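cache lookup: miss for this entity combination. No prior model stored, computing from scratch. Input as submitted by user K.M.:
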Amino acid sequence: AQKITQTQPGMFVQEKEAVTLDCTYDTSDPSYGLFWYKQPSSGEMIFLIYQGSYDQQNATEGRYSLNFQKARKSANLVISASQLGDSAMYFCAMRESAGAGSYQLTFGKGTKLSVIP
Amino acid sequence: NAGVTQTPKFQVLKTGQSMTLQCAQDMNHEYMSWYRQDPGMGLRLIHYSVGAGITDQGEVPNGYNVSRSTTEDFPLRLLSAAPSQTSVYFCASGQGYGDLPQHFGDGTRLSIL
Protein backbone atom coordinates (compact mmCIF):
# COMPACT_ATOMS: atom_id res chain seq x y z
CA ALA A 1 0.00 0.00 0.00
CA GLN A 2 1.19 3.48 -0.76
CA LYS A 3 2.23 5.49 2.24
CA ILE A 4 1.23 8.80 0.69
CA THR A 5 -1.61 9.08 -1.82
CA GLN A 6 -2.37 12.16 -3.85
CA THR A 7 -5.40 11.29 -5.93
CA GLN A 8 -5.48 14.42 -8.11
CA PRO A 9 -2.84 14.30 -10.85
CA GLY A 10 -3.95 17.74 -12.06
CA MET A 11 -6.16 20.54 -10.80
CA PHE A 12 -7.39 23.83 -12.25
CA VAL A 13 -8.44 26.82 -10.19
CA GLN A 14 -9.58 30.30 -11.09
CA GLU A 15 -7.36 33.12 -9.93
CA LYS A 16 -8.42 34.49 -6.50
CA GLU A 17 -10.39 31.35 -5.71
CA ALA A 18 -9.48 28.83 -3.00
CA VAL A 19 -8.34 25.30 -3.85
CA THR A 20 -7.87 22.11 -1.85
CA LEU A 21 -5.22 19.56 -2.74
CA ASP A 22 -5.85 16.11 -1.30
CA CYS A 23 -3.38 13.94 0.59
CA THR A 24 -4.02 10.73 2.49
CA TYR A 25 -1.39 8.76 4.34
CA ASP A 26 -0.82 5.41 5.94
CA THR A 27 1.48 4.81 8.89
CA SER A 28 1.70 2.87 12.14
CA ASP A 29 4.20 5.31 13.61
CA PRO A 30 2.48 7.19 16.47
CA SER A 31 4.76 10.18 16.00
CA TYR A 32 4.89 11.36 12.42
CA GLY A 33 4.91 14.61 10.51
CA LEU A 34 3.35 15.81 7.31
CA PHE A 35 4.85 18.34 4.91
CA TRP A 36 3.74 20.08 1.77
CA TYR A 37 6.29 21.20 -0.80
CA LYS A 38 5.84 23.24 -3.96
CA GLN A 39 7.89 22.60 -7.09
CA PRO A 40 7.58 25.30 -9.76
CA SER A 41 8.60 24.64 -13.34
CA SER A 42 12.11 25.87 -12.49
CA GLY A 43 12.52 22.68 -10.45
CA GLU A 44 13.42 23.75 -6.92
CA MET A 45 11.62 22.30 -3.91
CA ILE A 46 9.97 24.94 -1.73
CA PHE A 47 8.69 24.12 1.76
CA LEU A 48 5.14 25.36 2.40
CA ILE A 49 3.74 23.97 5.64
CA TYR A 50 4.22 21.30 8.33
CA GLN A 51 1.84 19.44 10.64
CA GLY A 52 2.99 17.19 13.46
CA SER A 53 0.85 14.20 14.42
CA TYR A 54 0.42 15.51 17.95
CA ASP A 55 -0.40 19.07 16.95
CA GLN A 56 -3.90 19.91 18.14
CA GLN A 57 -4.50 22.77 15.74
CA ASN A 58 -4.30 22.81 11.98
CA ALA A 59 -1.15 24.46 10.68
CA THR A 60 -1.37 27.75 8.81
CA GLU A 61 1.28 29.73 6.91
CA GLY A 62 -0.04 32.83 5.20
CA ARG A 63 -2.35 31.71 2.36
CA TYR A 64 -1.62 28.05 3.08
CA SER A 65 -3.45 25.95 5.62
CA LEU A 66 -3.40 22.27 6.31
CA ASN A 67 -6.72 20.52 6.95
CA PHE A 68 -5.50 17.73 9.24
CA GLN A 69 -8.02 14.98 9.94
CA LYS A 70 -6.09 12.43 11.95
CA ALA A 71 -8.82 9.80 12.20
CA ARG A 72 -9.26 9.86 8.42
CA LYS A 73 -5.49 9.99 7.89
CA SER A 74 -5.79 12.97 5.61
CA ALA A 75 -3.72 16.15 5.40
CA ASN A 76 -5.18 18.30 2.67
CA LEU A 77 -3.53 21.56 1.63
CA VAL A 78 -5.80 24.56 1.23
CA ILE A 79 -4.56 27.53 -0.77
CA SER A 80 -6.69 30.62 -0.38
CA ALA A 81 -6.93 33.42 -2.93
CA SER A 82 -4.96 31.60 -5.65
CA GLN A 83 -2.38 33.55 -7.61
CA LEU A 84 -0.87 32.87 -11.02
CA GLY A 85 2.42 32.15 -9.28
CA ASP A 86 0.80 29.24 -7.46
CA SER A 87 0.87 27.21 -10.69
CA ALA A 88 3.25 24.36 -9.86
CA MET A 89 3.55 20.75 -8.73
CA TYR A 90 2.61 20.19 -5.11
CA PHE A 91 3.93 17.27 -3.10
CA CYS A 92 2.68 15.88 0.17
CA ALA A 93 5.34 14.10 2.25
CA MET A 94 5.35 12.15 5.50
CA ARG A 95 8.15 11.86 8.04
CA GLU A 96 8.30 8.56 9.94
CA SER A 97 10.75 7.20 12.43
CA ALA A 98 13.43 4.91 11.01
CA GLY A 99 14.77 3.87 14.39
CA ALA A 100 17.81 4.96 16.40
CA GLY A 101 16.93 8.64 16.19
CA SER A 102 16.68 8.71 12.42
CA TYR A 103 13.76 9.28 10.13
CA GLN A 104 12.68 8.94 6.53
CA LEU A 105 10.60 11.17 4.33
CA THR A 106 8.15 9.59 1.86
CA PHE A 107 6.64 11.70 -0.93
CA GLY A 108 3.41 11.38 -2.82
CA LYS A 109 3.35 11.49 -6.61
CA GLY A 110 2.22 15.08 -6.66
CA THR A 111 -0.60 17.25 -7.97
CA LYS A 112 -0.09 19.71 -10.80
CA LEU A 113 -1.99 22.89 -10.05
CA SER A 114 -2.79 25.32 -12.82
CA VAL A 115 -4.19 28.75 -11.95
CA ILE A 116 -6.38 30.27 -14.65
CA PRO A 117 -6.47 34.07 -15.03
CA ASN B 1 24.00 31.66 2.61
CA ALA B 2 24.84 28.87 0.18
CA GLY B 3 22.48 26.31 1.78
CA VAL B 4 22.67 22.98 -0.07
CA THR B 5 24.93 22.96 -3.11
CA GLN B 6 24.79 20.21 -5.71
CA THR B 7 27.25 19.69 -8.53
CA PRO B 8 27.06 19.19 -11.41
CA LYS B 9 23.70 20.58 -12.52
CA PHE B 10 23.63 18.48 -15.68
CA GLN B 11 25.50 15.37 -16.72
CA VAL B 12 25.34 12.88 -19.58
CA LEU B 13 26.93 9.47 -19.10
CA LYS B 14 27.31 6.35 -21.14
CA THR B 15 26.10 3.04 -19.80
CA GLY B 16 28.72 1.49 -17.56
CA GLN B 17 30.49 4.72 -16.66
CA SER B 18 30.87 5.78 -13.06
CA MET B 19 30.46 9.17 -11.51
CA THR B 20 29.92 10.97 -8.24
CA LEU B 21 27.23 13.53 -7.59
CA GLN B 22 28.44 16.04 -5.06
CA CYS B 23 26.37 17.54 -2.26
CA ALA B 24 27.56 20.03 0.34
CA GLN B 25 25.71 21.99 3.00
CA ASP B 26 26.92 24.82 5.20
CA MET B 27 24.17 24.78 7.82
CA ASN B 28 25.76 22.19 10.13
CA HIS B 29 22.82 19.87 9.62
CA GLU B 30 23.26 16.33 10.87
CA TYR B 31 20.70 14.79 8.53
CA MET B 32 21.37 14.54 4.81
CA SER B 33 19.59 12.57 2.12
CA TRP B 34 19.46 11.81 -1.59
CA TYR B 35 16.27 11.48 -3.65
CA ARG B 36 15.58 10.75 -7.25
CA GLN B 37 12.63 12.23 -9.10
CA ASP B 38 11.15 10.47 -12.11
CA PRO B 39 8.11 11.65 -14.09
CA GLY B 40 4.89 10.73 -12.29
CA MET B 41 6.75 9.17 -9.37
CA GLY B 42 7.38 12.01 -6.98
CA LEU B 43 10.63 11.92 -5.01
CA ARG B 44 11.99 8.61 -3.80
CA LEU B 45 14.59 8.25 -1.07
CA ILE B 46 17.86 6.61 -2.14
CA HIS B 47 20.14 6.90 0.89
CA TYR B 48 20.27 9.03 3.99
CA SER B 49 22.64 9.86 6.81
CA VAL B 50 22.06 11.03 10.36
CA GLY B 51 25.63 12.15 10.90
CA ALA B 52 29.24 11.68 9.89
CA GLY B 53 30.10 8.01 9.58
CA ILE B 54 26.46 6.86 9.56
CA THR B 55 24.49 6.03 6.42
CA ASP B 56 21.42 3.96 5.69
CA GLN B 57 19.35 2.82 2.74
CA GLY B 58 16.12 4.35 1.60
CA GLU B 59 13.45 3.06 -0.74
CA VAL B 60 15.57 2.70 -3.91
CA PRO B 61 19.24 2.16 -2.93
CA ASN B 62 20.32 -0.36 -5.57
CA GLY B 63 23.04 0.89 -7.89
CA TYR B 64 24.08 3.73 -5.60
CA ASN B 65 26.70 4.11 -2.88
CA VAL B 66 27.14 6.87 -0.33
CA SER B 67 29.56 7.82 2.40
CA ARG B 68 29.58 10.57 5.01
CA SER B 69 33.08 11.44 6.15
CA THR B 70 32.20 14.99 7.22
CA THR B 71 29.07 16.77 8.40
CA GLU B 72 29.14 19.02 5.34
CA ASP B 73 29.46 16.55 2.47
CA PHE B 74 27.33 13.64 1.29
CA PRO B 75 28.38 12.39 -2.17
CA LEU B 76 26.33 9.91 -4.17
CA ARG B 77 28.24 7.43 -6.33
CA LEU B 78 27.02 5.53 -9.36
CA LEU B 79 29.50 2.71 -9.87
CA SER B 80 28.19 1.47 -13.23
CA ALA B 81 25.54 3.74 -14.70
CA ALA B 82 22.43 2.21 -16.27
CA PRO B 83 19.74 3.89 -18.40
CA SER B 84 17.26 3.23 -15.57
CA GLN B 85 19.23 5.72 -13.48
CA THR B 86 18.32 8.56 -15.81
CA SER B 87 16.58 10.95 -13.43
CA VAL B 88 16.75 14.22 -11.54
CA TYR B 89 18.63 13.84 -8.28
CA PHE B 90 18.03 16.01 -5.24
CA CYS B 91 20.16 16.27 -2.15
CA ALA B 92 18.59 17.61 1.04
CA SER B 93 19.68 18.39 4.57
CA GLY B 94 17.80 18.91 7.81
CA GLN B 95 18.20 19.41 11.52
CA GLY B 96 16.48 17.99 14.54
CA TYR B 97 14.21 15.02 14.32
CA GLY B 98 12.50 15.92 11.07
CA ASP B 99 10.05 18.36 12.59
CA LEU B 100 11.70 21.08 10.58
CA PRO B 101 11.65 21.15 6.79
CA GLN B 102 14.54 19.79 4.82
CA HIS B 103 16.52 22.17 2.66
CA PHE B 104 16.86 20.96 -0.91
CA GLY B 105 19.58 21.57 -3.43
CA ASP B 106 18.69 22.67 -6.94
CA GLY B 107 19.00 19.18 -8.36
CA THR B 108 21.23 17.34 -10.83
CA ARG B 109 19.72 16.25 -14.12
CA LEU B 110 21.44 13.01 -15.12
CA SER B 111 21.01 11.23 -18.45
CA ILE B 112 22.43 7.77 -19.09
CA LEU B 113 22.74 6.79 -22.74
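stored under new cache key. Chain B has no helices and eleven strands.
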